[in-house]
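User: Working on a comparison across species. This one is Quinolinate synthase from Streptomyces narbonensis. Can you predict its structure so I can line it up against the others?
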Amino acid sequence: SPSDPDLVERARAAKEKLGDKVFVLGHHYQRDEVIQFADVTGDSFKLARDAAAKPEAEYIVFCGVHFMAESADILTTDDQKVVLPDLAAGCSMADMATAEQVAECWDVLTEAGVAEQVVPVSYMNSSADIKAFTGKHGGTICTSSNAKRALDWAFEQGEKVLFLPDQHLGRNTAVRDMGMSLDDCVLYNPHKPNGGLTVEELRNAKMILWRGHCSVHGRFSLDSVNDVRERIPGVNVLVHPECKHEVVAAADYVGSTEYIINTLDAAPAGSKWAIGTELNLVRRVANAHPDKEIVFLDKTVCFCSTMNRIDLPHLVWTLESLAEGNLVNQIQVDKETESFAKLALERMLALP
Ligand code: 13P
Ligand code: SF4
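Assistant: Here's the predicted structure for Quinolinate synthase from Streptomyces narbonensis:
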């Protein structure tokens, strides 16, 4: 538990023993009890970039979810070992696009005669296999902090984008940031023949959105926004772009977890905020700013259950194992997948 002084002391001692051999990364959705031991915290873009910032560290302990640890493995040197404190920390959205489904989708696009015009853009929240598919087909990775720049780049390369796997980030970026209309977007359902789309629909679409979503952000609704505006007059609504389109359209500010933190840091004392993202982060920023009124956008509690799997006992076990020379829970992407996935990740890192 967060207040267990014995565990806190054990984590501190193991980390001290490891010294420069270990570099601990913490995503903003991690628990406070874990975040206190992170050498760096960030959104998924910042953590992907920072993972490679310490080539002298033998162990990268990634306090986040599986796809983030995979990306860190791809972007670090062969000598560095990336460790995920609980192997069950996955992401339900990333699981919504499998390599087989995406290969089948590409066949559908090929048969419809549109594949040559399509550039894949895959959200960071995807498996290394999907990133490799993206790299192989000339596409890029994006995160919530650079999705517009990724789409700008993609539409310089081709006429259509296949956006994987988060339909909401794809739609929100296309409509809110790129000036497209909802009619420019079609939804590809991997569970239906031909994605549930006609050849005509595929030919007319600019954005082909994969039918994936985040179940945590999916819980915010237009009612949540309307209710909070009624309850707290003058409130600023700030949400993550994984929220549904109608929620994002009704919000005042939209951005990544790092953007949310920076916006609240810069907000004047006395200002009022309702935040639509995971609850560990919302509680932490609320505690950090007692001079501002910061509330959760919905009334129901909503943690990301897989992010929450990384807790202090798992971190202590990981650090103590590494300190004793036992490599545990290593995340390792195979060489072939890594080389194509790296292409796609490097295109993202090179975006203007
Ligand atoms: P960020 O890149 O904004 O940190 O988002 C990661 C994520 O998983 C949100 O659900
Ligand atoms: Fe995945 Fe959603 Fe959790 Fe982010 S909040 S890691 S998208 S399940």
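For your comparison, note: The longest strand covers residues 22-27.

User: Helpful, thanks.
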